[in-house]
């Protein structure tokens, strides 16, 4: 069984060879960052809300700021609970 996602989201992957369970974190991250709300619903259907919330809180280390805001609102998670936000806060500073 595979999720019903646009193959274009995974242009740099061998789509037909993706192990959807093993690569769930990368799939969730990719869909949240580049997918539509309909595709967000598809990963919820495919992986389940608990797995996505756990990935957001504990595993996904980077999402762009605008996606952090959207994800926080959509999944009803405080951004301060999200691993990517915590990591971003701990890495503040100017790069030269």
Describe what you observe in this structure:
Pfam families: DUF6922. InterPro entries: DUF6922 (IPR053830). The chain is mostly helical and 96 residues long. The chain has one domain (7-84). 53% of the residues lie in helices and 0% in strands. It has five helices and no strands. The protein has helices at 24-34, 37-47, 49-59, 65-74, 83-90. The longest helix is centred in the N-terminal third of the chain and has 11 residues, at 24-34.
Task: Present the secondary structure layout.
Blueprint: H1 24-34, H2 37-47, H3 49-59, H4 65-74, H5 83-90
Protein name: DUF6922 domain-containing protein
InterPro entries: DUF6922 (IPR053830)
Domain DUF6922: 5-56
Globally, the shape reads: globular
Strand runs, count: 0
Number of distinct helices: 5
- Give helix and strand order, one letter per element, not per position: HHHHH
| First-to-last CA distance | 47 Å
Low-confidence stretches: none
State mean pLDDT (0 to 100 scale): 92
The computed structural class is mainly alpha
What fraction strand? under 5%
- Quaternary state reads single chain
Task: Write a brief structural summary.
With 96 residues, this protein is mostly helical. It has helices at residues 24-34, 37-47, 49-59, 65-74, 83-90. It has one domain (7-84).
